[in-house]
TrEMBL record:
Residues 67-221 form the DUF3857 domain. It comes from Algoriphagus iocasae. Residues 299-361 form the Transglutaminase-like domain. The lineage of its organism: Bacteria, Pseudomonadati, Bacteroidota, Cytophagia, Cytophagales. This is DUF3857 domain-containing protein. It comes from the Bacteria. InterPro entries: DUF3857 (IPR024618), Papain-like_cys_pep_sf (IPR038765), Transglutaminase-like (IPR002931).
Amino acid sequence: MKSCFRGILFLVFSILLNPKLSYSQIEFGQYSEEELSLTQVPFEPDAQIVTLWEEANSYFMVTGLHTNYHFRYKVLDDRVENFGNIIIPFYRGKSLVEDIVKVEAQVSYIENGQRISKMLTKENIKEVSIGNGQFEIRLIFPHVKKGSILEYRYKKIDHQYGILEGWSFQGTYPALVSKFTFKAPDFFQYQMIQQGKKVAEVASISPKKNLFSWERRDVPSLPNEPYVGNFINYEERVDGYLYSSEYVNPEKLEESEMVYATWNQLANRWLEMDEVESYVYADPEAIPEFPKLKLDSLSKLDQAKTIFEYVSNNIELKRSNWLEPYYSIYGLLQKKEGNSIDKNLLLTYLLRRQGIAADMVLINDRFRGRSQLIEVPFINQFQSGIVKAKIDDKDYLLDASDSVTPFGLLAHNKLVERGFILEKDHGRLEELQHQFRSGSIQNINLEWNDSSGFVYKNQIKLFDHEALKFGKLLEGLKADEKVWKKDTRIEYGEIENFSVVDELSSKRSISISFNSKLISEEPNLIVVMPFQFSEYLKNPFTQESRLLPVEYEFPSFENINATITIPEGFVVDDYPETMTLTIPSKKVKFTYQSFLGEKELKFSSRTEVSTYTFSASEYQDLKFIMESISVQLNSPVTLRKVINP
């Protein structure tokens, strides 16, 4: 996601820079014999698609920072559904922040033994506005089949040059050639951030440090593994930002509007944007739509909760990847809509009016950005904003972006270690403390009815992030049987008496209850699965080995208590025995207990995952315990009817 500041001054260059590369180029639409004859990638033989060539060439012109992109793929298998639908996102905003021009695309395919090449027309190249200044170029390639070559190129013009778009040499498909070059004017100095040993090895940097180039060959695709946070943490990649200029006095870097030497300077510049300042200095009397909340009789905590509920529920969220407000406070309250930054700025403003200390915090996204922040004032590493408030000497992290997330809880993708505190004259990176207890408690009673058999009476209580996940599922849906009937864990039985008690906003919990019937075709033998609604019934880790760390959404626990009434005339034939398991790191613990009485059989299980991340070296331990848990929870209880001779 690209972001800096609309107000940055752009220099008008008197001399145009030559964007041509010093090394050889491929010609658009011209294919070598090697490309045409390629049927398998030598270093990744199972690949269904290969990147024959990909390149980005960035340089300065009088109209902004230009980047020429060129991509060429070959299809090696017929099983590549939807591959030919390419989306190129960009942010035009209110002032042509970014633009995409000169889009060309061609498909080359085999028909009746002959290779045919066709340029895509306007019918297959469309520009689509998705709202809030965001646009997409959509390429729809026809004739996507084995042997086809898909190629496209375009120019991106960026009127903000402080942050480079960056380039990833690794992606979903293996690449034969991946190139990136960047040429800056002599009076600008950029800091390039290289990720990956092989990227650093192929770097070519001019003595003046104004021409950078990288060329990687035979780049493997990123591993297709489950439970990976964001591939940006592991891919070979280059980013960059402007850190100095001949036009800036090195003794007065803190006064520069062009270069950012410290986090404090970057924070002050962000806070000085016109739209942001409106959330600081606005006069409520001048805003007809200003909310009239009755707060004086409330405690500070209840005041904060009331303000939070107002912003969450009364301002419609317009999703945006932009790290700036879309409206001033006047426009926001008039339109009653805004992006996440808009809404949290309003929350900050209203809290401060009640004497509650509050600041905006920019954070990275665990599943869209880097896990570890770069220790330089590089704003492009952040993806969203939250609010840090101090109420009665206690710190709270708040996010009023949507109407579902409750006060004091952040969505799982925002559970990051540090954030960029946007405090005037005191901007800084700071540790963030998250307080939550996510998990579920299930109580299941299996009661026998002579006419209908076993009836499951299920009560499930979800806490914190488990409740938030279910709350988002219910958003816009009617809370009835249709919700649970879509749950893939329900493989048999009819759902009855379904009800939901939604206390997400007040107690950060949701309670669910429903009944389901066990259908048994064998009158003398009953097989019962007491743990059919466990999250751990299926082991997701089936690969023999792993290259990347395992990333969970959040630490959690699951407690299940099940009671089975033994029907008259039946005896327990078989049932799972007590088990306790853990792994050397103690990051996963599992206990399973069974108690056989005269008239009932009781079970309890607890599965606890106490961390977010498992290293690749811990994978075998994780795989073993998750498979063992799955086997235990899937173990049936068998009841046999006593037949008198």
